[in-house]
Amino acid sequence: MRKTLAAAIVGCTIALGGSPAAAAVLCSDITTIAGWSAAGSCQQGDKIWSFGSTSANLSPLTQVIFGGILLTHNMQIVGFDTSDAANTWNIKYDIAVLNPVNLFISDMFAGADNPGGGSLLTKNVTGDPSGMFTLIDVGGAEGPASEKHGLNALLLHIDETFHVDANKNLLSVSNTYLESRRNVVPTPGTLSLLGLGLVAMGAMVRRTRRES
Length: 212
Fold this sequence. Notes:
The protein is α+β, with helices and mostly antiparallel strands. It is built from three helices and twelve strands, in the order H-E-H-E-E-E-E-E-E-E-E-E-E-E-H. The chain has helices at about 1-15, 35-40, 190-210, and strands at about 25, 40-45, 45-55, 65-70, 70-80, 85-95, 105-115, 120-125, 135-140, 145-155, 155-165, 170-180.
């Protein structure tokens, strides 16, 4: 009976759109650009962050911080501005949804910690069904230009460039994504599997009571 119950529950999970997490390095274990590049990709919740490339002047030792909770996922790049000279850096990466039946990326935000101004953060983004869009953050001032709402994305490609003027300090840049849940209507087959799982669970409970 226990084997029957387990099989029923697994079948219900698959039919409802659940999927086991893909094997990947955890993003929480990655701390530098070099580590991300070596791993190729990392998993954060139900998201996969895939490394693409960087400009030659973005040090491999630049710090990368992944974080998030529930349906919010973020990545921050820190410690790249080590000179008083003006400079420009670039990074390309992808973010993908592991559970596309139930979840999708609905919102995106660009941020920069730039006290005193003198920076420009630009993100060219492709992959959303509505087409390419660009987010811009000037001098660390976040607002409508640095946000995008109403997305329906399962995989986004980001080409991000950040610039700082001479004698200015760009402490970090950030990338934040929000997920939304789909209103999935169960199919007759899904309902049948769910019913089978409930029946098996009830039978197991009754058997346990009799044995006790």
